[in-house]
Please model this.
Amino acid sequence: MKYDAGSPLGLQWAGLIEVADSYNWDPETLVAGLSRDAIVGIEAPLWSETLCTIADIEYMALPRLLSIAELGWSPAAGRNWEEYRQRLGAHGERMEAMGKEYYRSGRWGGSRDRETGRQRDRGDKEQRDKETGDRVGDRERGGWGEGKPTRGDLVAAADRVVPDVIGPGLAVLFCGINPGLYSAYTGHHFARPGNRFWPVLYAAGFTPRQFRPDEERELLPLGYGITNIVSRAPQLRANSLTLNSEQAPSNCYARSKHTSRGRLRYWA
Model:
């Protein structure tokens, strides 16, 4: 989610999450009736619809990821935002030295004042776009012959269905949760630039080279297919995705008849 309303990246359907918000909560008291023993760990999901580069990911993750780590390692009684805020300021210098992109805000010592930090963030984003635009555009056009979609294009892609890549005699059927808006826009699975599905598939030895999203049907001769628990792309708000109405679990199980040569596997 965005840090504040002026953040150049991110979404806000779940609210705005400043660095302090990512720190000032307690996993043990968030859900009423949930015992401490029932908590295995905590996670920090990153929605990537607006992210195209590693620098974008770093900006959204840092420094909030440090806050999540602190929550996972430290008991609530030992946590104090003002004390943590001072320590976090030192991490800003380290991230600068490492060349990492991160959100700067006077609220945690990342810049001298909040507005200066916001302007610097916007300037950095514009510079990153200028430096990487040609490379990202080439990668996108190489996938399906079109340029980068606008926000309006992505909004219009909500509720579209991305067709399964499926056939008889599959060895492996990769099953996602639901296609993203980028995939719905292109009509191809795992199509968002930066998605790790296709690189990981190649690195793991499933494919002889890294396929592009528009080459997805070349998986079939290799004995692999792709489907989703929910076949349609959600709208920008998470509550638009209702698994019950989609009969979620059965969607993948119903396709297991096509995986006659091996054990059904899921990708999520």
